[in-house]
Specification:
Helix content is 60%, strand content 6%. The chain is built from 5 helices and 2 strands; from the N terminus they run ββααααα. A two-stranded antiparallel sheet has the order 1-2. The termini are far apart. The protein is mainly α and 109 residues long. A hairpin with an 8-residue loop joins strand 1 and strand 2.
Length: 109
């Protein structure tokens, strides 16, 4: 799938998109105390030599991008489902219809 940068400008860490997708599903199942997990991850990354706060930022921006993508796709799908605007309903039949079938469209003659 690829990598996702921890910040939009000058990233110092890139996270695999599969890991971010896993985390997104994991956080849905997790109890509301997400900070415990992110703090643990931050300590782990610091011990590995990554001295920044990019991991939480990468997940945040991944979620933002995911939600914007979902909204864009839903808007495109909904726009395609809406039927085109019908012409304004005419109050009187056209001159052509009156000429073709005066009995049906009530010509004055």
């Amino acid at each position: 799938m690829g990598l996702f940068a921890c910040t939009p400008v000058a990233p110092s860490l890139a996270v695999d998109l599969r890991v971010l997708k896993f985390l997104k599903g994991f956080f849905v199942q997790l109890t509301p105390n997400i900070m415990a997990w992110t703090d643990t991850l931050q300590v782990f990354l610091n011990e590995q030599g990554y001295h920044h706060h990019g991991s939480v930022s990468a997940y945040h921006w991944y979620c933002v991008l995911f939600m914007q993508n979902q909204d864009l796709l839903l808007n495109k799908i909904n726009a395609a489902r809406v039927p085109p605007m019908l012409e304004e309903v005419r109050k009187q039949p056209s001159a052509y219809l009156c000429a073709c079938c005066p009995l049906c469209f009530g010509a004055s003659n």
